[in-house]
Amino acid sequence: MKVYPISLLGHKDHGKSTLIGSLLMQTGAATQARIQEAEQYSKKLHKDFEPAFILDSFAEERTGEMTIDTTRAEITYKGLAFALIDVPGHEELIKNMISGASYGEIAILLVSAKGGEGIQPQTKRHLYIARMLGIDTLIVAVNKMDLIDYDQEKFEEIRHDLSSFIEKIGFERSKVHFVPISAYKGENLVKTCKSLDWYGEGTLLDVIYRSVKKEEKAVGGPLRIVAQGSIVSAGKSMVVGRVINGSIKKGERVCFLPSKIAAVVSDIVVNGKKVGRAFSGDNVALAFKNKINGETRGSVIYSGENKPSLKDSINARIFLAGKLGKDLKIKFNGIDVGCKGIKILRKIDPTTGDSSSAKNIKPLDAAEAEVTLIKNIPTEDYNITRELGRFVFYSGNKFLGIGIIER
Amino acid sequence: MIKQDLKSLEGKSIYIIREAKLKFKNVAALWSMGKDSTTMLALTRKAFLGKVPFPVIHIDNSIDFPETYKFRQDLAKKWGLNLIVARSEIKPDIIGSACCGKNKPETLKKVMKEYGFDALIVSIRRDEHGIRSKERYMSPRDEKFRWNFKDQPAELWDDYSSKLDEAGHVRVHPILDFNEIDIWNYIKKERVPVNPLYFSRDGYRYRSLGCTHCTTPIKSAAKNVDDIIKELSTTKTEERSGRSMDKENAYVMERLRQFGYM
User: Fold this and answer.
1) Contact by Cβ (8 Å): A70, B156
2) Which residues fall within 8 angstroms of residue B25, CB to CB, at 6 or more apart?
3) N or C: fewer beta carbons within 10 Å in chain B?
4) What span, in angstroms and rounded, lies between the C-alpha atoms of B124 and A358?
5) Which helix (H) or strand (E) holds B186?
6) Other C-beta atoms lying within 10 Å of the C-beta of residue B238
7) What domains lie within chain B, and their CATH numbers?
8) A355 and A362 in contact (C-beta within 8 Å)?
9) Cα–Cα distances in Å, from B149 out to A1, B95, B108?
């Protein structure tokens, strides 16, 4: 069965791991041994039972009461399966949050309704990053309702305060839902809760169930294959890679970028079997009638007139997780490409969505920038072909941030 | 236990195995002859059109089951595996997790150094253990095999980690996404050969296989792959319930992995 990946977002201590722990227990996905183990350790640390311990497995995560790294756990509901991706909420662990959230198709944002907690800068930063990562469906779980006497007014206040920001950064109103819950008490997650009967839209899982895109992505559009490289099998060289858009047929004439080498497909192998045609999502091995000279890793294969553009200067929206330093490079479809410079066009504050003309940015800032590279790469607008419109920044071995190519 | 879509699991594994081979200079895989690492080899054969194009290492402490040794011999021959048997000495005074935590990693360190491997494919799965669920698909280790779990590399958009330094290596986890039941469904679909110890004899079978010292069988009547799939669809016990080291202390797995346990 298809498993829908869902990223959890939100400020630390607003209940991400607790929510997943409770969902695992209430849907019967957690084994007795895992629950018992979490129970034992809650006791050992002189705490009431902590559902988050089902997820937070490192000793330091438990004693420090915070998630350090991302993990995932699966649940099923009404015949659908969801992989819940937990991420750390702490600012310093934004790299791990980005790693986890990048696998989500939709997101659940946790906002604590408890007095003094509420909407935090990190709440909004997570939302901004999620939108950059391409998440377009959002469920805002207003948590800890039990601590504010299930107060509808407070819930509406949070909905009101967050809605304008959510729309400002590009979410569509129809794809955003607010749900009141108590993750710790397990209320309105799987079963409805009497104290929340003023809320008429169902439980959190009902809302998730209604929000996932049940229809499959349409097959079609122009061919794009990102090549991982070449392998040799029985003395014959084959190019391996993933079809990210369109389809490829035996006998078809295709072209490689950036090399511009044209070639005719003589054989297609998908998951070990020879096929006449391969489709979007398939991992292929391709043999060609003519020899493909040079490095194929990071190449894009296309056919026909519709092709990616070769560029050594790209306009991108970037988010910085670290300090811009020396030996700057981007990682793009398996290859490292040196960066000559990054010119900041506009600085964006991810916690407000406002932009300003500042020329310098620091960690946790976003920006519109012009990135100049040492060589041409085949790119497309992120909204057209995601895989060709996104990259990761590094300074030497240090992760610096992410970029989205926008025309 | 959730049954996932085998085609997408297979595709992702093939992608990662190819990535390991193409990204690194000198790759090897660990093979324990268990169901997971044998499935990984079956996936590798699909990724490389019928061949396993890198050496497979068995860390052999000489106390594996006789069935396991026979399985090793038969499959290595059938699939033409380049098998490296690295002997690990059993010390009678080092038992349980200390044995897995010390003897085996020491042997692995030696063999990695001798052959100069810069990447090692390991068939762990996220659903096996809370600590394993925190792993990346590719995870760098330093010279001493340490796993710096507090500062793991970013991993997104098919951009996987590189080595930390010359002396270190990268662990590659191509079947991280598989659940236990997915492994058995894949074994069924692809007719992957399995060690006979997984099947019930006299009312008992091994659900997770280690060496003869640390593994105990579970009560089970499952005599074939179909029976196992049926059994797993309703079970409430943990897969590694027959592995003694997991029980010594809740954080023993964390320490084991930190210091290089597979």
Assistant:
1) no
2) B118
3) C
4) 47
5) helix B180-190
6) 21
7) 6-178+248-258 (3.40.50.620), 195-246 (no CATH)
8) no
9) 31, 26, 20
Partner-chain residue, chosen from B11, B21, B155, that has the shortest CB–CB distance to A282:
B11
Structure tokens at B184: 């058995």
Helices and strands (DSSP H and E) totals, chain B:
9, 8
CB A3 within 8 A of CB A103: no
Q: Among partner residues B4, B23, B241, which is closest to A3 by beta-carbon distance?
A: B4
- Bridge partners of B57, per DSSP, are B30, B84
Query: For tokens 């660990």, what's the residue?
Result: B30
Coil, helix or strand at residue A55: coil
**Given B46, B157, B251, which is nearest A272 (Cβ)?**
B46
Q: Number of Cβ pairs closer than 8 Å across A and B?
A: 137
Q: What domains, with CATH codes, occur in chain A? A: 3-211 (3.40.50.300), 224-302 (2.40.30.10), 309-405 (2.40.30.10)
Peptide bond into A258 cis (omega under 30): yes
Where are the extended beta strands (E) located within B122-243?
Answer: 138-141, 169-172, 204-205, 218-219
H or E segment and range at residue A239: strand A236-245
At B33-80, the pLDDT tens digits run 999 999 999 999 999 999 999 999 998 877 788 899 999 999 999 999
- C-alpha A275/C-alpha B46 separation (Å) is 14
Cα distances (Å, whole numbers) of residue A274 to A192, A277, A285, A286: 51, 9, 9, 10
Which residues, in sequence order, are CB contacts of B247 under 8 Å at separation 6+?
none
Listed in sequence order, the residues at least 6 apart from B14 whose beta carbon sits closer than 8 Å to its beta carbon are A271, A283, B43, B46, B47
In tens, the pLDDT along A17-71 reads 889 889 988 888 777 777 777 778 777 777 777 777 777 666 666 666 666 667 7
Question: To probe the interface with B, which of A37, A271, A329, A400 has the most B CB atoms within 10 Å?
Answer: A271
Q: Which helix (H) or strand (E) holds B196?
A: none
Helix or strand holding residue A354 (H, E): none
Indicate which of B157, B164, B186, B243 best probes the interface with A, i.e. most A CBs within 10 Å of its own CB: B157
pTM for this prediction: 0.89
The pair of structure tokens assigned to B129 is: 């253990």
